[in-house]
Amino acid sequence: MRISIGLAALALIVSALLPARAGTPGVWQKIVDPAPVIGLDGQPHSATCSGFPGTDATFSYFVKPGRSSNLVVYFEGGGACWDDQTCNNPFVDGSSSPLQFYTAAISPQLDPAQASGLFADQSGNPVRDWTQVFIPYCTGDVHGGSATRSYQRTGGGSFDIRHRGFDNFMVVMDWVRQNVANPAKVLVAGSSAGGYGASINFPWVQSLYPHADFSVLADASQGVTTPGFDFGTPGRGSWNLQFAPGVFGPDPLTVPTPALLGTAARALPQVKAAQFTTNFDLVQFQFYALMRSVYGPGGSCTSTLIDWNQQMGSQIRDTATSTPNFRHYVAAGSYHTILTSPTLFTEKSAGVPFNRWLGSMIAAPGLGGGLWQNLACPTCIQTLPCQ
Question: Most Cβ neighbours (<10 Å): which of 80, 87, 139, 163?
Fold first, then answer.
């Protein structure tokens, strides 16, 4: 007799049978150039960075065994690239050029132990004792791509970019599957491009731990985009984004970027989903301004900044209305990202300290309550007049 079993069920059985591997609680480990794996999707995956000319394509990731049975998976941010202009201009240390769009390689200085916020060993951090997995970002595809694309080099010639963020994620999840057994609580989070990575990929983590109290938090990744970018190649189509089947609908490539987190949250109503943003996030605004000018149209406001704010507010209100398991925290200001910053411990412009709001989300059973409510500073999501 042949027995058929689904991938998610198989992953759960393997996770339950394998105990957590030995490691020193509270000490970060760097895993360099991991071996290829068969991923949670049943497909082969190899890890790599972008391979932009002159950069190191070696992929690495970081893990820290915890003192509790809980797990946090964090996706690093670092811009994006999808066409000749953006992919020709990665971030360069020490450069003041405004034309820098994405992280093409992992910095040798990257060390989560030096980060604040979720990774700070201090009171007020609700995940300080958890097992922590830090997924670096070096593929320009919001941790969701599985493609190699050729772009035209400024000055002539061409080069390839390995948009393989999803492959990297699958490789990291193989370590998680083998080393983290039955966590009571799971938080999947990410900042900026990593926030989109968390929104796209958290269903895979949830399939591995379906009985955990599960939360997902997207930081500074509200997703004000244009249809020309979302459904075009070049554009989001450059990445061959991979979506969890059964979560984003029969044709997930028709789901616009602003709807990714809400769509996944409605498909998995047992998951607590949240979005953080400031009301005038200048990094999100600058990417939207580029999309609007090159891949328009945008909104009707002449002021692109007001246009971004209007769309952000409308989107976040609509998601809160349509998605019972979603909450937002919209803070005053124009800064970008909070999860790896000391600001995680000081932000309170929406009336409740952000770290207490996050702690309430994680601590409360089911869909929570307490401080985990839809919050915004007094003028943050009001509809502003066009200028």
Answer: 139
**CB neighbour list of residue 247: distance below 8 Å, 6 or more residues apart:** 203, 263, 264, 267, 268
As to burial, measured by CB atoms within 10 angstroms (0-12 exposed, 13-18 middle, 19+ buried), residue 387 is: exposed
- What is the C-alpha to C-alpha distance for residues 194 and 103, in angstroms, rounded to an integer? 12
Structure tokens at 255: 């789901």
CA–CA separation, 34 and 177 (whole Å): 15
For residue 365, the model assigns a pLDDT of 74
* Integer Cα distance of 60 and 47 in angstroms: 8
Question: Residue ranges of the chain with pLDDT lower than 50?
Answer: 1-8, 10-22
The pLDDT of residue 382 is 86
What is the DSSP-derived secondary structure letter of residue 187?
E
SS3 45: strand
Of 158, 238, 165, which Cα lies nearest the Cα of 200? 165
Domain covering 7-376 in this structure, CATH number = 3.40.50
Cis peptide before 297 (omega within 30 of 0): yes
Task: Please state, in angstroms and rounded to a whole number, the distance separating the CA atoms of residues 306 and 45.
Answer: 42
Tell me the CA distances in angstroms from 11 to 2, 18, 22, 210, 369, one per residue in order.
Answer: 19, 11, 20, 11, 31
Omega within 30 of 0 (cis) for the link into 136: no
User: Please, which residues have CB within 8 angstroms of residue 143's CB and are 6 or more apart in sequence?
Assistant: 75, 135, 137, 165, 166, 168, 169, 190, 193, 194, 196, 197, 200, 201
Quick: pLDDT tens for 36-82.
Answer: 999 999 999 999 999 999 999 999 999 999 999 899 999 999 999 99
DSSP 8-state symbol, 150? E
CB of 280 within 8 A of CB of 305? yes
Residue 303, φ and ψ in degrees, nearest 5: -75, 115
Q: Give the pLDDT score at 174.
A: 98
The upper half-sphere exposure of residue 200, i.e. CA atoms within 13 Å in the direction of its Cβ, equals 29
Q: How far apart are CA 10 and CA 254, in angstroms?
A: 30
Place of tokens 């996706």: 75
Burial class from Cβ neighbours inside 10 Å (0-12, 13-18, 19+) for residue 297 reads exposed
Cα angle value 164/7/180 (rounded, 5°): 75
